[in-house]
Amino acid sequence: MSTLSEKIRRACADLDLLESGWRPPADIEAVPLDQWYSIQHRGLHLPALAGMADHPRLGHTLVTTSPVLWIDEEWSIARCVSRWYRLGQTGRPVWPSWPDAHIPVTTVDDLRRLETRIAGTGRSW
Known about the structure:
125 residues, alpha+beta, 7-stranded mixed beta sheet
């Protein structure tokens, strides 16, 4: 299992790529998330997703993602702190205030502050 620092490093690298214009290829390793909807991550008060996933550790179950960092223009793939999610059908309306474009939810500096904040709580993903 990856440590929080490793997940943050990978997420930062992906955000750098996304900022340069790169977009994830269709065959990128991503956990399928169906019947998904937007929520506020418990305890962290940041945007996250919930839905039915074939999660690598938890199996097929209802999950809450780590905080959302980016969602593509078609709402078909999302980068969360811990991993990529391939988005299927929505389960209920998503953030009504979000524009019809990709969603850069946070920056690399925000991620580093988040890492410090999470480390202080003793939580992990």
